[in-house]
Amino acid sequence: MRRLALILALPALLAGPMEAAEPILLGAINSRTGIRAAEGTAVQQGIGLAIEEANARGGVGGRPIRLIERDDEGKPERAIAAAEELTARHRVAALVGGYVDSLVAPVSEVAERTRTPYLATASLDERLTARGYRHFFRVSSLESYVRVTVGIVREVFRPQRVAILHSTTPGASQLARRQREGLLAAGIAVPVFEPFTPGLADFSPLLARVRDRGAEVLLSDTFFADHLLIVRQMAGAGIRVKAFLGAFGLEFPAVVGELGAASEELFGTTAWQPGVFVPGDEDRSRAFARAFRARFGRDPIPLAMHGYAAATALLAALEAVVARGEPVSGPAVRDALARVDVETPLGRVAFDGRGDPRFYERAVVQIQDGRHVVVYPPPRAQAPPRYPAP
Fold this sequence. Notes:
By secondary structure, this protein is of the alpha/beta class. The protein is 45% helix and 19% strand. It contains twelve helices and 14 strands. The strands form three sheets. Strands 7-6-8-9-10-13-14 form a seven-stranded mixed β-sheet, with helices on both faces. Strands 2-1-3-4-5 form a five-stranded parallel β-sheet, sandwiched between helices.
């Protein structure tokens, strides 16, 4: 009789540990191939490292985190398909990732429809947080880009004429418009304001306008590969400006390797990179860089930190849900994410009522003697800017 009772009780005894060990599913959508592969891979590596570290600590409430990764190939239709698969088939508790708003926006639509929280790692389009969506959050925002790029032009460069070339992606287009407004308000002329399609092969006509209209400063609101091409074509045509400031991608260490001497004195923006961090976050920053090097065999590029910080915030939300004894569900994680307030190497991560980050900050860096150094704003500057370029 006693043996029979033990046999009957066995399923119940096994159920507890098995249920406790059931993984929490998260979905990550990034460009691993295609035109944005370099950026998407960096974001994915940062996300993955945060999840690996959490699992090494025992997971969340004793449950391992299983990260299901999907490649959007840099195509909106693939991003939508990935989001629909992850939310409908796998029923993930949350989505994380995304670089450029042409890929982030369609994922956010699926997330809102399925009541799945989505934490975007690199999103700037101001329209996305003006829709009243409850399940969309992001760790970056446009305002800081505007503040530092317009600020250094007005306060440090002080030119008479500025040229702005910008990608037609939503965030880049909005940044360019905001920059033009800020410069015109300061009495600085913007005689060149030209959009272009990402992946353009020949910038010669646009660069000729920069030269012919006497622009002293060029603001290049586009991405890593485009910057390399623009700088090379400027050098080939003998077109010179006093300052070249690229909004996205010029903070990558690979710029120096790709352009060599032509990279000197170029300006970019960054929120984080090895040696460039928010004051007070030095220890967290160095620990992340060490862990990244140990895992991937090289230094992290800045976008890896966006992935890591987003995953850290999402893990904090999951911890809060489990600590309250609630089931891990999309709505529960969404509510916890809205309340999250966590320190990361990127700085403090918390969200306002629209899902925008409350504390995201960027700085202007310049390549000096083969190194990226912060030159603006003054409280964070590691060296004075070299301006005008020789």
